[in-house]
Amino acid sequence: MEVVVQITFGVIAVFILVAAAMVVSVRNVIHAALWLIACFFGVGALYMLLEAEFLAVVQVLIYVGAVSVLILFAIMLTRQITGEGVRQLTNRWPVVLAIATLLFATVLAPTLINQQWNVPPAPPLGTPEPIAGPAELGRGFVNEFLIQFQVVGVLLTVALIGAIVIAYEERARRRKVLTLAEELELKRLREQTSPTVPAPVEAEPVVQESRSASER
Amino acid sequence: MDWLTILIIVIQCFVITLAVTTAFAYLTLFERRILARLQNRVGPNRAGPAGLLQPAADAVKLFFKEDIVPAMADKPVYLLAPAVAVIPALIIWAVIPFGCLNLNWDYQACYDPARTNLWNILQITDLNIGVLYVLAVTSIGVYGITLAGWASNNKYSMLGGIRSSAQLISYELALGCAVLSVVMTYGTLSTHEIVTQQQGGLWGIIPQLLGFVLYMIAATAEVVRAPFDLVEAEQELTGGYNTEYGSMKFALFFMAEYIKLIAVSALAVTFFFGGWHFPGLDILGREVTALAGPVAGSIVFGIVSLGAFLLKVVVFLFISVWVRASWPRLRYDRLMDLGWKWLLPVGLLNLVYTTVVIILIPDRVVHSWVLFGLGAITIAIAIGFNRTPKPIDNVTLVKDIQLPN
Fold this sequence. Notes:
The complex is a heterodimer of chains A (216) and B (405). Chain A has 216 residues and is mainly alpha-helical. Helix content of chain A is 69%, strand content 0%. In chain A, helix 2 packs antiparallel against helix 3. Chain A is extended. Chain B folds into 2 domains: 64 residues; 320 residues, no CATH class. Helices cover 66% and strands 0% of the residues of chain B. In chain B, helix 6 packs antiparallel against helix 8. The longest helix of chain B is centred in the C-terminal third of the chain and has 46 residues.
């Protein structure tokens, strides 16, 4: 059984690494997002292998089900993404590679050198049971880790307020959203009243209108 | 875990997948016949007796159609999308309890909250986080539609895909709130335990009337069914996200949609209508056990509970078809308005109600009815508010338009 677990771990780990490499190397942005989703699924499978079902499901629920959908949504709403002709590497990419490897090694080397492979460190006496199920996790949030939980809550609230402040539009500045028929009729009326001077095409307000239409 | 257990699980998976696929085929017939009846037509009645072979004829037609991939489509994603749409619809069935047929031949173990001596063959797995699993699987259901819309390289498909991702993100929150209030009421994330706790006629709809209404609206939007089917609005999008799909690939999308509809109906039954409970089921199990021994007792108990569950699901499917025949499609801004400004706040309010009432009144029956009353009052107030006209509904006639000065 131990060997099966090791092999499964190896397969999942390789899958995660390949997916992560594909995220930064494919040229098409949507494909990159899809590889990112695959990578998240791999991490979820890793949690499942560690018998942390709750974390695995939450990983899928939040990262795959919410974050990646938003990423895809944002990419689809962005105009003119043509990643095909774009060069992904500059001329000096070996220098960057060397620096990145060096920094990564600085962090990882002490860990790797001091690692005693395959020997799980014995927990000191009096270590609490590891948090596994949702009930224990919830109790942990409201007892032991209350301050961290509250800080995260405040952080999320701040982000929410920030988003509202950025997206907020004064009521007085909002314009009534016109239907296509109404816009055509207005255009016709404008042309009737001033046939010599054509009304300037307002490029900016049109974008504004479509934005406020989607927000209502 | 010996090989026999694994074999039984594999057989269970096969049976459920085949049963669900067949149910999808006959649901299309059911829907077409009922819709026809509601619209004073006849409906498909030529293939076989009373049209019963119509699904087979449709399947044969779809199998033998030519398989076309548009030249400018993104081929890998285009081919991946139908599979991504169907898989969540199928794997969601793993945690739904269809009934309780205990293979350890003791029907009373079905009611045992500790689940000792229970080997229920009518539920594939009883995860202790079953409800979260359901939410996670529904949340990945959006990818099939979105990717199909994008990969087809067609502007109508693209519009359908964008609409779907916006709609599903919006309604997932309300759905989550409704389901979480059920979880709070019963204090468990296991679907089996939620069902067993509804024993004795106090079904989930009594404490969670508000949750049920929210769930039904949000779930209908989540499976993109009328009146929330903007994703495939034929009049505007020539079919929506699946415009460029033909033959079996189209059938897979169709299948995903209908299987998801059956799944959310089954979940509604599980959460709010007592699952496989039926009045007198307990007495039946006891009497048959006394009469013909524990084996016959648990088999009869299992079959009757399965029948009760399926009957309730069919009632929900009928309601869904009825709704489709009765309501016109929502306008897009109304859809967003309903999701964000009504369902989500009311869902959060319901969570507050549930917490406060259950903490203040520990008695099960009393707090259920108090929550029922609160839910009914809230629904009445919300509907009352919603009937007041809003300035956004004022439409200017074209002949009344004047130039702004």
